[in-house]
């Protein structure tokens, strides 16, 4: 789904655990102009080849995975970053492109990422380890020549210590990772989850002017929330339904 001319939304269509991915097209300088938010995993627990499904959808939109220049992970869970390494290897294989995509994650997720990768090293199957090229900080992230795309990096802990959301003020688009869903919130019962921190993060997001809320996973209500009133109603519903349990 193309939300805007340079923003593509890839909602995970399968049954297994995998995230939605979002791609800003043609924003970076050079021969790798695309920015991918949360590539998801390679294969789900029910053997769905989620990376292949994502790549196929991208190619239908005329976007080649080898042309991704930056991968941003909203947080350090394998259903969001598991395909990082596979995409790097695929990008390296393209003739005439000696460079490779950069990978970024929030600086406050550094220690948690190490814990997760150490744990996942014991899992069967191909390794999913990766080394971030750089760490994001809270504030403006300007991309491309002449600041072609400017995002706001928002530190929104609770689901994990260093979870982030990305806000595109020009179009009032909010990419929420696993902080806020359509009628739901991220889990806090996993290691290092913090319900009080998540509540504060959600309240912070609710103060933004948002016309499109793009979550990390769909729910039975749907995925993308369109319209400022609908976004506000979603936040109001979360306060009533989930805040008493946090």
Verbal overview:
By secondary structure, the protein is an alpha/beta fold. It has a single domain (2-245), classed as Metallo-beta-lactamase, Chain A, CATH 3.60.15. It contains six helices and 15 strands. The chain has helices at 50-60, 78-81, 84-92, 110-120, 195-206, 228-241, and strands at residues 2-4, 7-10, 21-24, 34-37, 68-72, 102-106, 134-136, 139-143, 149-155, 164-168, 173-177, 180-181, 184-185, 212-215, 225-226. The strands form three sheets. The protein has a seven-stranded mixed β-sheet with strand order 1-2-3-4-5-6-7, with helices on one face. Strands 8-9-10-11-14-15 form a six-stranded mixed β-sheet, covered by helices on one side. A hairpin with a 2-residue loop joins strand 12 and strand 13 (184-185). The longest helix is centred in the last third of the chain and has 14 residues, at 228-241. It starts with a strand and ends in a 5-residue tail after the last helix.
Keywords for this entry:
25% helix, 246 residues, Metallo-beta-lactamase, Chain A, single chain, globular, alpha/beta, 6-stranded mixed sheet
């Amino acid at each position: 789904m193309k939300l805007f001319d340079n923003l593509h939304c890839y909602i995970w269509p399968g049954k297994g655990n995998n995230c939605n991915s979002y791609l800003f097209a043609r924003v970076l300088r050079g021969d790798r102009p695309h920015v991918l938010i949360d590539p998801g995993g390679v294969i789900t627990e029910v053997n769905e080849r989620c990376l292949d499904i994502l790549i196929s959808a991208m190619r239908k939109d005329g976007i080649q995975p080898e042309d991704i220049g930056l991968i941003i992970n909203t947080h350090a869970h394998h259903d969001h970053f598991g395909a990082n390494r596979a995409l790097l290897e695929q990008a390296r294989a393209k003739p005439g492109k000696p460079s490779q995509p950069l990978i970024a994650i929030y600086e406050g997720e550094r220690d948690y990422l190490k814990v997760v990768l150490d744990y996942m090293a014991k899992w069967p199957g191909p390794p999913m380890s990766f080394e971030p090229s750089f760490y994001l900080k809270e504030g403006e992230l300007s991309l491309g020549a002449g600041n072609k795309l400017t995002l706001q990096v928002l530190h929104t802990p609770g689901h994990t210590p260093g979870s982030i959301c990305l806000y595109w003020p020009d179009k009032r688009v909010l990419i929420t990772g696993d902080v806020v869903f359509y009628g739901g919130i991220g889990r806090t019962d996993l290691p290092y989850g913090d319900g009080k921190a998540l509540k504060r993060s959600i309240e912070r997001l609710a103060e933004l002017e948002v016309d499109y809320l793009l979550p990390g996973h769909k729910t039975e209500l749907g995925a993308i929330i369109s319209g400022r009133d609908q976004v506000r109603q979603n936040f109001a519903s979360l306060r009533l339904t989930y805040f008493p349990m946090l």
